[in-house]
Amino acid sequence: MIMNNIGVFLYNTNSDITYKINLHNYNILKKNFKKIIIIDIENYFSKLLEDLIINEENKNIIYITNDFCKKNIFMDLNINAITYFFNIIDEEIYKDILEHKYITFISDNYIYCDDLIDYFKYVNQHDLDFYSYTDSSEKDYHCQLYFFSISCKYINKFKEYINDNKDNNDIEFDLLNIFNSKIAYLKVAYINDNISHNIFYNHNLFKKIFINKLLPIINIQYLYNFINNYNNTIIHSKIPNNFDIEIYRKYDDLKDKSDDFLYNHFLVNGQFENRNYSKDGNYILPNFIRDVLKSLHLLYFFDVPDNFTTTKYKEYNKDIELLSDKELYIHWINYGKDEGRIYC
User: Fold this and answer.
1) 199 burial class (0-12, 13-18, 19+ CB within 10 angstroms)?
2) Domain coordinates in residue numbering, the chain
3) How far apart are CA 211 and CA 288, in angstroms?
4) What is the widest separation between alpha-carbon atoms in the chain?
């Protein structure tokens, strides 16, 4: 059953990766809304996305493109996008918004891994003015604005506040003052392990609640951090705690070697050759994220395929054979996949 809610997708569809992610986010969340408005940059990729979505012949979708994003970054900074949204929609659309129960703003700096139906059920079973998916105590207590819903009864007040405070760097922290009743659906701000942290970058805690599907949302920058830090992995001076000698022994040139030889080989050679030594695999992303992105057909953008081998990648691509194994992983992510290079 579609609830009487309106969804506003704040998009910056400027590349193949944002095209695929934004399409995914739209498809997985659209069932929650009676009407959808998409605000997007105007270019080749957004045109592809617009044509695909509008071809569904759904009269309840409004797709608005402009060159606003060429001067303002939508991703990760919702206030600029929301301000623009209120300034560009016409009076007819605005009146229509007021006929709905809740309006939900959705940032495209995240990958939504399920339909979040439990969140929307919670919103519709209560009668509050403001809901965010998560809160935070980073810097000061506030509700995070990557995904939040407002009662349409408060839309005029919210619009006025946004326009009056668009230059206020602390708007995220002061925003809650305009609502009488508000709540974070997933309260993580004052969990001991998360005080003064952003939940999406608090790896150990995020892993726990992500695996348990309490926060089935991934910050895209969080994924890029794994890629950016991949070549800076600490050099092991001793055998890691998760070292599995039988996994390491599976290499053809190591299968007949003694345990002591294998331990020494890893420290002197193996770790620099990017050889796998644990059940977690030897990928850029941790397995709990890899598995989900693979199921969503988005792993391609952030990590190498399961059957990727640096030996074959160098063999088929002589211009990069001098790169280290870790550099080859990064090369495939940044260039090889787009160039259609053979890797296995």
Assistant:
1) buried
2) 5-219, 225-339
3) 7
4) 76
3-state class of 117 per DSSP? helix
Residue owning tokens 């006929």:
99
Q: Collect all residues with Cβ–Cβ distance below 8 Å to 226 and sequence separation of at least 6.
A: 284, 285, 286, 302
Residue 150 β-bridge partners? 103, 130
Q: How far apart are CA 285 and CA 230, in angstroms?
A: 9
pLDDT digits (tens, 9 = 90+) for 93-126: 999 999 999 999 999 999 999 999 999 999 999 9
The CATH class, in words, for 5-219 is alpha beta
pLDDT of residue 231: 66
Q: Within 10 A of 275 (CB to CB), how many other CB atoms are there? A: 18
Half-sphere exposure of 77 (CA within 13 A, CB side): 13
Residue that is written with structure tokens 């668009």 in the block: 166
Total count of residues recorded for the chain: 344
Give the Cα separation of 134 and 85 in Å (integer).
23
Asked whether 139 and 55 are in contact (CB, 8 A), the reply is no
Q: How far apart are CA 187 and CA 70, in angstroms?
A: 35
